[in-house]
Write the structure tokens for this entry.
Amino acid sequence: MILRLIIFAIIGAVIYRFLGGKLPFIDKTKPSKEKCKDDDFTKVAPTSKCTICGTYMTEDDAIIYQKKSYCSKECLEKAQKR
């Protein structure tokens, strides 16, 4: 009786190793971290506030004039008229 259990355990272990150590219906695959390496959702872009209207925008989108940031050409023109 014990010999049968040992044989079944060995056969089970061999099948488990043959499947790569994963049981297809039990083991859930986790998403790979390699897919998330270049994920822009985890990066926070620096923002700045428009001097005229107060709109927030990324520093890449901002128009910088005399060390002040503006969201559009209209706001820049308003500032130059002042």
User: Anything to note?
Assistant: Helices lie at 2-18, 73-81. The mean pLDDT is 80.
